[in-house]
Amino acid sequence: MIIEYPSPASDDSLLLEIKKAIPEARFLSEVKRPEKDELILGYVRQVLSLWHYKSKDKPIAVDFVGGKAGHRRKFGGGKGQDIAKAVGLNKGARPHVLDGTGGLGRDAFVLATLGCTVTIIERSPIIAALLSDGLKRAMEGDIEIAEIAARMTLIRADSRITMQKMVEDEQQFDVVYLDPMFPHRDKSALVKKEMRIFQELLSGDPDANELLEPALQLAKNRVAIKRPKLAPDLAEKEPTYRLEGKACRYDIHALKAFD
Ligand SMILES: C[S@@+](CC[C@H](N)C(=O)[O-])C[C@H]1O[C@@H](n2cnc3c(N)ncnc32)[C@H](O)[C@@H]1O
């Protein structure tokens, strides 16, 4: 992992933080010649991005303004979407959601677009940095997107520990949403490329089962878990019911009806 330098001056602290979290990370200025396919985190036209050195693939970055997120915001199907039903939006609720596996924030952004307040936890410093940069740009963009982004808060931490702490502090969220990684069957080029980088960075989420217990304690109304269609139940615990979608399913552990 190489951190490209120079970066926009205002964000040097972010890169230094990453270097602290990943001691083996190197700044480009310290490296004579990166190896082919080495992962690079750096700025492409002011956007924090992740790419393989010398690769022709589009770098991975968080873009809530244009691209797929923008399209889904306008044409995504509103509260009729499975993810909206999964967190209870079809029941008239406007829940405060804790997204315990933030990733690149796509699901969190969809939920915030539909009116939820979303607290996001992401433990990978690299993924969290990409998301933080995407949120920052969203806040600086047009007013509608800035208002959505203002409903999203990012915490860089391990959810297993942070959720437990929140329980001890007697905090509650209406809904806890979880989407841990699971080996993918989708062979599309984009998924393959993104998954390759995610697998390389995160080596899967082998401790995902440990998320369920604190989530069940922290949630007031329900825990909603996104799973690939054929994946086993998280922590082998059967949910109250399932929402079967086209590409994935949502397992719902219902705890209490929405007020
Ligand atoms: C499949 S991705 C989530 C994608 C996300 N739902 C989205 O829409 O972009 C899973 C993410 O969960 C994060 N994660 C897994 N276990 C975690 C934990 N215990 N605490 C915080 N983040 C975790 C991983 O680092 C990874 O970025």
What can you see in these coordinates?
The chain is of the alpha/beta class and 259 residues long. The protein has two domains: 2-52, no CATH class; 67-254, 3-Layer(aba) Sandwich (Rossmann fold). It is 33% helix and 22% strand. It is built from nine helices and eleven strands. It has helices spanning 12-21, 67-75, 82-86, 106-113, 125-140, 143-149, 159-168, 189-202, 212-218, and strands at residues 2-3, 26-27, 39-44, 47-52, 96-99, 117-122, 152-156, 173-178, 219-228, 241-244, 248-254. The strands form two sheets. The protein has a seven-stranded mixed β-sheet, sandwiched between helices. A hairpin with a 2-residue loop joins strand 3 (39-44) and strand 4. The structure holds S-adenosylmethionine. S-adenosylmethionine (SAM) binds at residues 101, 103-107, 121-124, 127, 158-160, 179-181, 202, 205, 211.
Task: Draw up the topology in text.
Blueprint: E1 2-3, H1 12-21, E2 26-27, E3 39-44, E4 47-52, H2 67-75, H3 82-86, E5 96-99, H4 106-113, E6 117-122, H5 125-140, H6 143-149, E7 152-156, H7 159-168, E8 173-178, H8 189-202, H9 212-218, E9 219-228, E10 241-244, E11 248-254
Parallel strand pairs: 1-2, 1-3, 5-6, 5-8, 6-7, 8-9
Antiparallel strand pairs: 3-4, 9-11, 10-11
Helix pairs in contact: 5-6, 7-9
Features of the shown structure:
four-stranded mixed beta sheet; 2 domains; 22% strand; alpha/beta; binds S-adenosylmethionine; seven-stranded mixed beta sheet; 259 residues
